[in-house]
Structure prediction request, 570 residues.
Amino acid sequence: MKVIINGQPITTDRPMTILEAARICDIHIPTLCYHAKLGVAGNCGICVVEVAGSANPVLACETEITEGMEIVTDSARVKALRERRLREILSSHPNDCLTCFRSQGDCQLQDLVYQLGIDMDTVTFRSQAQMVDKDLSSPSLLRDMNKCIKCGRCVAVCDQVQGIGALGYVRHGAEEIIDTVSGLPIAETSCIYCGQCINVCPVGAITENLSIYQFTKAVADPDMTVLVQIAPAVKVALGEEFKLPAGTDVSGKLVTALRLLGVDKVFNTDFSADLTIMEEGTEFLGRLNNSGQLPMITSCCPSWVKFAEQNYPQLLPHLSSCKSPQQMFGAIAKTFYAQKENLNPGKICVVSVMPCVTKKFEASRPEMARDGIREVDIVLTTRELAKLIRLNKINFNQLADGDFDYDLGFATGAGTIFGVTGGVMEAAVRTISEVITGTQREKIEFMPVRGLAGVKEAEITLNGQTLRLAVVSGARNAARIMEQIKDGSSPYHFIEVMGCPGGCIAGGGQPLPVMSTEIQNRARGLYAIDEGKAVRKSHENPAIKAVYEQFLTEPNGHLAHELLHTHYTD
Ligand code: HC1
Ligand code: SF4
Prediction:
């Protein structure tokens, strides 16, 4: 099909909308709601264009091209219409960009105001009298519906992708707004705090519940020893905030940046991911050999755990009793490391840098504390850390590479691949297979669980016994797997579940945008880090061996159970 956009002839090989055709040839038509993956379109009214022969302008996102169509995307009339619509949107938006986390780069509304050259002195904003209270009920998410532009992306991702349906269009008097479907604060809904809604929100209506101020206070406190752990998926994504390609390993710069920010030690969640494999692998073999509850399901993703607690309380015995690597790190830091360094656990502040917003909730769970001391004190998202680096005027790309501090910082490649869907299972297979067979694996990689598919299946035969494995990401897919277990048809022995589609690389705290290309490149980045490591199996990690020799004694032993395992709430 041939069409002409702004005088430029374009040939397409399939039916598509004007917006898609324009994007193919890099003609920018602004929009605030359109999202190809979510099928959201037609809500913001910004993408108006003129079509020859049509009296009225049309919306580019929902108008299909036809043979010979002539389209103009930047006429004076179109620009005036866009400006009128944008002023309408701004009239119900607060004028508080100065304090908005999404300001300066991550707000599509702000970008558009600049693009259209709107004189801000002539704009009417939402008045104080029109303001509604912010929803501060969740430790993970902050909802400020004053900023919502009703694009509908959050509703679509929560329902279509995650299958949760916590958000919807609801009526308040004559006004349609987006709210929780029940009208209750988010903490009292079915929300699993995955943060996928944050990642698609074009403005600052849903963001992480910020911990930047707490961090700044902790590093300024001379009595506090601040220990940082960095999650796997952060290392291949943070660079995007500084214009580096997705997948670039910025571990070394990250370590240096954190030291410049004033922390005392920079450790690694990949280290405690190795510890998780020791505990979870041992637990799995125990269940397998002693007719325990199978399939066993991983428990390192707090969105997944919340989902299981809310929806499948009767199946909770299938979840591994292991705490997540984030929490195992905190537990070991405030016991083993505190003793070793003669530190008062009450004067240690554990900070996690996570690609995730649910990790804030996980850290706040009552069972994730001992004697009133939290295992993890502060959780920063990848985006929050980037903001801190920028606010402190650190020239990130020029930083020299630093090394992780050793004791809780040495990690294997197995720990690193936790950050991508399939990584936990592959890390477990690397260890379990060697424990069962007593011989080294010929090939370290376990390819059947790689790739970004939402559900993957694999089999492995060890000493004549075939283990059936499944890897699932995204809450909607997790529900399918749980229904199988419920009706007794699940063929699996071991299942990995992550709440976000693609795993932590696509977590709700990652740099924006989180689209397919970024996710794929971040996955490649993690596998490349793994490949480059000298030690690639958790049970060969010398720092982990030292923790068992000097402190825990053995995996699943008494102390390990006390510190590294948990229970679930139905
Ligand atoms: Fe994850 Fe995990 S992999 S849950 O995605 O098990 O967030 O990266 O830190 O805890 O290791 C997140 C990532 C992370 C934990 C580990
Ligand atoms: Fe839905 Fe996840 Fe957002 Fe909660 S955090 S509203 S579950 S998309």
The pocket of HC1 (ligand 1) is lined by residues 231-233, 269, 273, 300-301, 324-326, 354-356, 359, 418-419, 503-504, 507 (CB under 6 Å). DSSP finds 18 helices and 19 strands in the chain. The two ends are 57 Å apart (CA to CA).
